[in-house]
Amino acid sequence: MKVKTLEIDGKLVTGGPEETIFQAAWNNGIRIPRLCHIGGLSDIGACRLCLVEVEGQNRLLASCLTPVEEGMKVRTNTESLRRYRKLLIELLFAERNHVCAVCVANGACELQDLAMSLGVTHIRVPSQLPHLPVDISHDRFGVDHNRCVLCSRCLRVCDEVEGAHTWDIAGRGRKSMMVCDLGEPWGVSQSCTGCGKCVQVCPTGALFLKGKTVGEMRKDRSFLNFIVTAREKHIWIR
Ligand code: SF4
Ligand code: SF4
Q1: What class does CATH assign to 83-233?
Q2: Which residue has the CA at smallest separation from atom 8 of ligand 2?
Q3: pLDDT reported for residue 196
Q4: pLDDT at position 122, please?
Q5: Residue 169 dihedral angles phi and psi, to the nearest 5°
Q6: Whole-angstrom Cα distance, residue 20 to residue 61?
Q7: Pocket test for ligand 1, best of 152, 166, 209 (most atoms within 8 A of CB)
Q8: Who contacts 2 (Cβ-Cβ below 8 Å, separation ≥6)?
Q9: DSSP for residue 71
Q10: Residue 142, SS3?
Q11: Minimum-distance ligand to the CA of 196?
Q12: By the 8 A CB rule, do 41 and 224 touch?
């Protein structure tokens, strides 16, 4: 196993041959913004927030999908990357109805945190204000499509960790929507085990626990590390 040495934001770091730029950065205390990545699930490069500049490349690369290479020089936080990420966040806000003041995830939302850290105070593109459904047919959970950023964390955790594959994405482009099974209400899903993993990994208020107040809507993702470590290393960490 040959370790690679590279430079990230001027800092000399090392990464294993299987590691991505995102992982190498994370392991060395460099935080790259992201919405779709979550440790323990496969990476798909959907949100594009983790794009970085790599010397010698004429395009930006998704750090969650790009393996480290010997001698690489990576920049993760330049002025143009910050501008680009800010616009991406604005587009996400414009695409659906993210009204934080009346959202159950207010104060515990990764999209809101990113907007604040990137200085998004308003959006410069017209808001689409779509009329999207809220499905509260499940006994314990609800899905508000108005808050969904299509990160597919729910789909991946349900498929890769729970093994149920209840969620999927239907439609294309701005008409894309998360669907349960073949588009049935969540409450009548035959495949859902009711484990709640999808709710815990959702970065916004799109998936929520019914009956919880805003102050109680804190998501616990520690189960992911526990299950993945147990599966891959056969170590029970709790
Ligand atoms: S509750 Fe569990 S089984 Fe049901 S959709 Fe969510 S992750 Fe899948
Ligand atoms: S429901 Fe939540 S986890 Fe699923 S795609 Fe939408 S934002 Fe992501």
Answers
A1: alpha beta
A2: 151
A3: 96
A4: 94
A5: -110, 125
A6: 11
A7: 166
A8: 17
A9: T
A10: strand
A11: 1
A12: yes
Ligand nearest to the CA of 201: 2
Backbone angles phi, psi at 173, to 5 degrees: 55, -135
Q: How far is the CA of 135 from the centre of ligand 1 (A)?
A: 14
Q: Which CATH number fits domain 4-77: 3.10.20.740, 2.60.40.150, 3.40.47.10, 3.40.50.300?
A: 3.10.20.740
pLDDT at position 1 is 64
Structure token digits, residue 45: 């490069």
Q: What are the residue ranges in the chain where pLDDT is below 70?
A: 1, 238
Report how far apart the first and last C-alpha atoms of the chain are (Å, whole number): 29
Q: Tell me, what's the pLDDT at 3?
A: 93
- Cβ atoms of 129 and 159 within 8 Å: the answer is no
**Amino acid letter, 216:** E
CA distance 169 to 152: 8
What is the token pair recorded at 235?
Answer: 């170590």
Going by DSSP bridges, is the β-strand pair 61-62/167-170 parallel, antiparallel, or unpaired?
A: unpaired
Query: Hey, where are the domains in the chain?
Result: 4-77, 83-233
Buried b (16+ CB within 10 A) or exposed e, 112-136: bebbeebebeebeeeeeeeeeeebe
Distance CA 58, CA 40 (A): 31
pLDDT of residue 215: 80
